[in-house]
Amino acid sequence: MTQDLKNQQPNNPTTQKPSNPKMTGHPNKLFVGGLSANTDDDGLRQHFERFGELIDHVVIKHKVQSRSRCFGFVTYAKPEHADAAMAARPHTVDGTAVEVKRAGMYVFMHAVKGTAFETPDQGKARLLTHWEQLDYGVQFTSSRKFFTISPIILYFLASFYTKYDTTHFIINTASLLSVLIPKLPQLHGVRIFGINKY
C-alpha cells in the first residue's frame, strides 16, 4: 500500500492547494476552542453550517465523565467553506466568544503503547499509552504503571525569612523536584518521596 501511494502522482497541475502552504492538517477542518460547557454537537453545527456544507462536527468530551472539554472540530465539504468561516472571525457560539483556526497536526512526543511493567491482568491497558490511560480517569489495573515521574517547580520561601540575596533567590526559584509515586500491585495506596535534581 505504501508503494502504491508513492507511485501516485497528481494528474492535474492546477489542483487546488490549501490556502496556507505551511499547514500540515486537513484544509477543510477547523479547530474551535473556548466553547461553553453547555455547547453540544448540534449547537456547533447550527453556528458553522451557515458558511457551507459540513461533513463532520464534534464537541470533544471527557471519556468517562462525558463532560465537554470546551473545544471541538468542524469539517467542511470544500476548502472555500472553511475559508469563509475563517474570514468571518471572530465567532460567538451560544453567547461565548470562541477561537477558530485551522486544524493542524503537531507532534509533541512519541509515546509507546502499553506499559513498561506488563502483567497478565492488564487487559486493554496494554493497547494504550500512559497518557491515554490517565485521560480515562480510571486505573485499569493496580500495576498500570510502576511509578509516575512528575516534575514540580518549587518556589522556596527562604527569601522571606533571610536577608535578600540575588544569587540564592534565583537558584532556589529554579529548583526542580522529581516526585516518584510507586504503584505496586499488592498496595492500594502510594508512597511519595522526592529527589532534588538540582
TrEMBL record:
Region (Disordered): 1-30
GO CC entries: endoplasmic reticulum membrane
Domain RRM: residue ranges: 28-105
Recorded superkingdom: Eukaryota
Major localization class: membrane
GO molecular function terms noted in the UniProt entry: RNA binding
Keywords for this protein: Membrane, Repeat, RNA-binding, Transmembrane, Transmembrane helix
GO BP: regulation of ceramide biosynthetic process; sphingolipid metabolic process
Listed SMART domains: RRM
Membrane topology per record: Multi-pass membrane protein
Statement: the UniProt record of this protein carries the keyword Repeat: yes
Chain intervals with Polar residues compositional bias: 1-22
Compartments, as annotated in UniProt: Membrane
Gene3D superfamilies: 3.30.70.330
Similarity section: Belongs to the ORM family.
Function description: Plays an essential role in the homeostatic regulation of sphingolipid de novo biosynthesis by modulating the activity of the serine palmitoyltransferase (SPT) in response to ceramide levels. When complexed to SPT, the binding of ceramides to its N-terminus stabilizes a conformation that block SPT substrate entry, hence preventing SPT catalytic activity. Through this mechanism, maintains ceramide levels at sufficient concentrations for the production of complex sphingolipids, but which prevents the accumulation of ceramides to levels that trigger apoptosis.
Subunit structure: Ceramide-sensitive subunit of the serine palmitoyltransferase (SPT) complex, which is also composed of SPTLC1, SPTLC2/3 and SPTSSA/B.
Protein name: ORM1-like protein 1
